[in-house]
Amino acid sequence: MDDAAFPSHSALLATALRAIRRARGMRSSEVAEAMGLQLRTYQHFEEGAGPFDLDRIRRFADATDSDPFAIVASIWLQDADFAVRAIEAKPMVVMMLALRSFHEELDQDITLIEPRVWWGGFRRLFQDLADHVRKQDLSAETWLDDQALRLGLPPSFHPRSRRKPSDEDSGE
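RESULT FIELD:
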């Protein structure tokens, strides 16, 4: 695969850091101060320049109340938006906490789990999480639509992209 087709790790890191800082409504100087860095040193870090530094990523995450593991994962996922989407729920922190406990429980026996078993487990987990989100959102939207109908209003709370095929308007 051609490496030129993908952004560099430093470019992805820079994009993720900048997007998180902006999502938090913080200025560079505020993050630099919270990290204990000079402004120019922080700007250099936010630009993705210099060596990859996990300690700085952790300190950045502390300063911006974000997920340090999601920042790193966004680089490997080739999607800086993942780091921003993970700000509130901190899914990678939760996963690492669970993995740590799992590792401590299984110790050496963790080596007995084959890659296809890991894949199957993660696939089921992610499908369950996706189903949870879809059901949660749709149940609220269904209730709102039902209430709108009771008032004689058209149902309009189900976004078209998430409506079930039977909910779609007929006709072209």
